[in-house]
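Hi C.,

You asked whether I'd gotten around to modeling the 73-residue construct. I have! Everything is below, sequence then structure, no commentary in between.
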Amino acid sequence: MVNSREVGRDDSWEGIVINKSRGMLDGSNMYHFVEVRLDDGESVKVRIRRRLWKSIEVDDRIAKRPGADPAKA
C-alpha cells in the first residue's frame, strides 16, 4: 500500500527510492515526488524539492531527519 503525503518537519524516516514522478497537480506548479520503501517494508510517496529529485535515481537511499529536509543518505 502506498500513502501519499507531504513531508512534515518532525517526520523521521529512511528508505530506498523505488519510483520517481512529477506532475502539475494544480495546473501551474511542477511537483516532484518519490516513492520510498521504508526499512520496515512500508512504501510512502513523498513530495521533495526539485534539486534533490534531479540528483537521485531509483535504488538510491534517502533519509529524512526531524527538522531537516529529505536528503541523500
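If it helps when you're writing up: The chain is about 10% helix and 50% strand.

Thanks,
B.
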